[in-house]
Write a structure and sequence with these properties.
By secondary structure, this protein is an alpha/beta fold. It is built from six helices and five strands. Helix 3 runs parallel beside helix 5 (about 100-120).
Amino acid sequence: MKTTLKNILITGSSGFIGFHLSKYLLLKNYNVIGIDNLSNYYDVNLKIKRQDILAKNNNFVCYNQDIKDKNIFDNIFKKYRPQIVIHLAAQAGVRYSIENPKSYIDANICGSFNLLETLRKYPSEHVLFASSSSVYGGNAKLPFDENQKCDTQISLYAATKKANEAMCHSYSHNFSIP
């Protein structure tokens, strides 16, 4: 990786959005540090193919680890000091949260908490967290609006994403995380 470029950490870098964002940022000559646990929620081979495409660029490095492991963030921040963090990683899927609720707590709550705690020690210039329209839950007013009250989540997935929003707001406020 080139040391003169900005380092951008992208969690969930092998997912649909993470892959395309990583690809775009690499084309713009940023260093991209990706994290993806290659979960089998959907085709792992597709994720591996995406990583192979990104790995052709010398400004890309990927860690195939789970964000519920708090040490992964410490290691990455010590080594690369990312100036920008884009947190896309999550266990997705409304129906699957009924079958496997613990995976949502591990990834969405514990994983996000681990990242936020690391950001307290290693500040970044900017942090972007991706939520979900599922947080609007049972709201009847359409289209959804970011200013709507959304306290009626109807799935554990939505509840964890809403909790993430609250956690990010709290950490931003209390620890000046931008």
